[in-house]
Amino acid sequence: MTELLDLVALSLLPSRMWRLAADALRQDHRPARVLSDLVIGRWPDAASRLATLRGEAAAAIDRAQARALTAIAWGDPAYPEALTTIPDPPPVLWTRGRGAALSALSVAIVGSRAATPYALSVAAQLAGDLAARGVVVVSGLARGVDSAAHRGALAAAGITVGVLGSGADVIYPREHTALAEEIDRRGAVISELVPGTPPTPCFFPLRNRIISGLARAVVVVEANQKSGSLITARCALDQGRDVLAVPGNVLTGRNRGAHALLRDGAKIVESADDILEELGLCAQNPAELRTPAACGDPVLACLTLGEPCDLDAIAERSGLGPTTLLPRLFELELQGAIARVGGGRFVRVA
Fold first, then answer.
1. How does strand 267-268 pair with strand 242-246?
2. What pLDDT digit, counting tens, does each position of 40-55 carry?
3. Burial of 326 from C-beta contacts in 10 A (0-12 / 13-18 / 19+)
4. Are residues 59 and 87 in the same domain?
5. Which of 27, 63, 283, 316 gets the most CB atoms within 10 Å of its CB?
């Protein structure tokens, strides 16, 4: 409980300090030490500031318990491994619904809030087809493309995850309250912000890194040149995730952001099969997804059953750079194709 309190306190620090906190936690420093190191020397009233942060953290934990929210903290086995690979993972995730959804193979679908009927239809179709193949669909529960993606996944009896720019108990927009409740039953609604946090504009660009961080790839469906979806795409590129985009009408100008991604090398998406192909996954039918081994995955090809191999050797054999290799290793681990062993080595398993 003490570690959770300190981790929640870390999440209450200014966002510019989150990466520093993550770097220290990765070095196995205790949360209490990380919190003290970040506060002492930066504020003249350090002792008072620490007491205030821990008091606010305790109040947040109490609110979560009262509102049936689950706190998944850094170091918890339930913490999604995908987020441990990004530069600034949240110290704590506040969740409602099924936390297990956060550790499955995921694809993010994002796009315009003021989406055209074409974009809404495409988002729902892609999400439904991916969900039918066992892929979790991640999005931001916003109006437009986001909500269409969530609904498409649910209509296919699939699993979807909504990432909020407010507390997990503060659904925004409010008309999506019923949608959030439906997502709870099959997936999860999550936030890095403590319960009760209102939807402030500055939080939405920050949450985009979590949308992309949870996913193996980000698909942009209709985005103008100033769309927040492009922030998610940039986060994905920084995190070593794949970025794909759906082409649209060139006459309206409503999809110039996505077209810019395509000009920069993003893969064109016309169907869910295009997404699965980019991920190295082959779909034989809507209910069955073959493993990367069956598709000639370059990472699995350089690993031998039962023989541990370190990261440098895997990179050399596969020819993949760190930004591509690390997410691929993480994905293979989630699928049970490989296992992590001591000394930063990986081994292929049956």
1. parallel
2. 978 888 889 999 999 9
3. middle
4. yes
5. 283
